[in-house]
Amino acid sequence: MPTAEEDRASRRLAWCVAHLLRHAPDHVVADLIGRLDAPTRKYLCRDRWLSPSTVTLILRHGSEQDRQYVARNPHVLGRPLPGLPGPARYAARPGASPELLRQVGPGPFTTGELITLLRRHGRRPRIPLTLLRMPHAPLDPETLLHEHTRDPLPPTAVEALLLVGGLPREVCQALLDTGTQDTSGYRWYRPAVRAVRMGLLTCDELVAHIAPAHRTLLLAHLPETRGLRWSLPEWTGMRTAVARALRPLREDPRLWQELHRHAPAFRGTLPVLVARIVRGTLAEPADGQTVLGLSTALGTLAPKAAEPFGGVERELALASLAVPMESVQEDIRWVRDCLARGLLTGEDVIRHKAPACWALDEDHWLGDVDHPDRHDWPAPVLAARAEADRLCALALGADPDAWWRVAVTLPDFAGTLPHLLLRVTEGGSVSGRS
Questions:
Q1: Which DSSP category does 363 fall into?
Q2: How far apart are CA 28 and CA 397, in angstroms?
């Protein structure tokens, strides 16, 4: 039976690990989860700050007890676990009209017939779900992939297949290749959002398999619409994964310009496009191809030079980040006011706020911002997580041992995140260093 002190230590370590794993690649996440003892894993599975990709990897590699803890976590959205929303929620709503059901017949349908019906009636989102609930032969993955490669299925049909098709992960990944479909169509991004929210794929896996490449870039900056869309944690996770794929471009303006030129016409995935841009092996793109919203998405992802502003007030605001106030609410009010006046940015908070575990937790400096249906102050959250991604990638790379040293040091470290990373990578004390 653990003591109260040991229980508090496990809870605090789980809280710090949950924040750190938001910035780690998938193989590091899986490695760190495997290193946690049973009490800490329990608190990690119940933590409110779990990233979508971390939840997916816990469901994929964790024990049955881990999955039960995740199922009871009220902050985990849409995973197909007991007590969580799933296909039954959509089945309870009205589907296709009786006239349509009379048209298509009672079934059972072969895989080919079902695919033909999904193409013909796939423009309304609930009709494909109704068709998949009708009697049909077990879906043949090879036939499904062959037909999707020949002529990609509508996004609504792909989303329905992800929801109730029971398909292997490789098939789900292949269905995300949309070919030359127009991104102005009905909610083209819904299958990608659904794949993450159901725990089928991580954000890194989305980036590795979505084609063409420009769709991956657009997923990092979706338009604000009603209906299914990224929650703020999912949005930041997707931007982290896209930024990780774009890291080989560094801050070279020439390479980013090449990405802007080639992305509209390139039919492969984003990592392949980036690798070929870096090697310089791409042919000249066809003229006249444009993608709506691509320039805006690239503008939010491209590195920007920081410009000094604010003068003495800014320096005082930066200094105040290292001195926690008497209460968290007072700290939040002060930082929000500085953000509203333009004296601080999300990057400043990550670089200067102490302790480092508070800087990684937006609830300690911005308030409750991760409600799934309310994007309150997303700009500083996106900026802060992008800066944390950059610092962690620069200092830790893909070394699980380095990430683990940061995780176990973070709960009791009183300095800033850059100082913590410096201690882990160079060793010794960071006192007195610039």
A1: G
A2: 10
pLDDT at 409: 95
Weakly modelled stretches of the chain, pLDDT under 50: 82-85, 374, 429-434
Sign of the dihedral through C-alpha 163, 166, 169, 174: negative
Please tell me the predicted confidence (pLDDT) of residue 434.
31
In this prediction the pTM is: 0.90
Task: Give the Cα separation of 59 and 14 in Å (integer).
Answer: 17
pLDDT 10s digits, 275-286: 999 998 888 876
Residue with tokens 């750190």: 20
Alpha carbon distance 270, 254 (integer Å): 17
Query: Burial code of 86-119, b = ≥16 C-beta within 10 A, e = fewer?
Result: bbeebeeeebbeeeebeebeeeebebeebbebbb
Q: How far apart are CA 351 and CA 331, in angstroms?
A: 17
pLDDT of residue 256: 95
As a whole number of angstroms, the distance between CA 354 and CA 366 comes to 14
Whole-angstrom distance, CA of residue 178 vs CA of residue 17: 36
